[in-house]
Amino acid sequence: MSYLTKQNIADIYPLSPMQQGMLFHTLYDQDSPAYFEQFFCIIEGELVYKHIESAWNHLIDEHPVFRTVFNYKELSQPVQIVLKKRPININVYDFKDYSGEEQKKKIDEFMEADRSERFDLSKGPLLRINIFELAAGKIFFLWSYHHILLDGWCLGLILIDFFTTYLALKDNKPLPHFSRPPFKNYIAWLNKQDKEKPKAFWTELLKGFSATTPLPWDFTPKDRKLKADKREITLNSEATKKIEEFARMQRITLSTLLQAAWGVLLGRYSGNDDVVFGATVSGRPATLPGADQMVGIFINSLPLRVKLGGIVEDMLRNLQDQSSKVQEYGYSFLPDVKAASQVSIKDSLFDSLVVFENYPIDPKLLTATEGIKVSEISGFELTNFDLCLVVAPGEEMKLSLTYMIDRFRPETIDKMLKHLSNILTSMSDNPRIQVSKIKMLDDKGKRHAVEKL
Asked: What is the dihedral of CA 331, 332, 333, 334, to 10 degrees?
């Protein structure tokens, strides 16, 4: 059955800059899993599967982004089309007879295969739900969707709406109405923004920058295939507290500190004292009423420039000021930003991205629902960048590097994570130290380097 009919169209409006970029990369390499997102968790309780399906379809009715498809054929500019109806069916798999190890293996295999099942952006739906029964009253919940619909900030909003709806169905109560402002309000806000101010800002910021900051690639493949893996390290609570306290004393955000450390790392590996990398900005404008309650995609990936001279304190201050301005122009279209630089048209402006997860899902919100427990919340995502550093704050900060396996060896990534940790420690020890004196190797690493000479 086709839902893309004139009678079923509720609204049509343009794409945001980030949506335009994601659409381009998705169409450019249709075999790529880039921007395919998976959210998964364990849910325990007395679960009624028909209520789960009904709850999700209610959310689809309530939130226009879930009924959105994209028309890009034979148009000068692509548009997004909101349908009146676009219901989904939920698949349920009985894994109760398998051992825990077999369950994990089968779910991992399913998730890998799921990533190869691309969404049709022109037809939808751009999400699907799969449930795996692990034991009586215990399921593995897998929600897959295309990133062009929404960002990580929305996950907590959607899950709360889902559980609210599910419990209403379970208790035979009226379905709730969620009065969240629609995403189209953001598109309207975008169309009112001054185009010249951000152009002037990016031209000034990128003045004199003419070559992409190189990464420590191990391979240079002829035919690129986007297949990624991830390595991570966890900083213990003592190290995490020290870093957080340092950021507070310097009156900077934790994200600025991590961005500065990444800039230093790129400078050491590339030999450059002027580096550019991408940073994800939230993109939710303070001047747009209800922006923090909207379901849609606001994030953007924009450049930060770090000049590695002077003392740490000054570098951090400059980067904090720069980050504030980048946030102000967080709606900028990346191709327009690149055009403001002197980087060759055939090269990318940056090949690495730093993502600071400032939207953690509070498990207390999810366990507050009577008779339901949610645990082991996690996710999978893949960008089109060679390296993506994801920082997950918490009592023990996690630093993970997602990397393209056709460009890096795992041991290279492990080494980078260790060096990044050492740089953070060195900066936190002495904010007055010269940036050039920041330690990347610990004493053991220094001994090993000397032994190799």
From this structure: -120
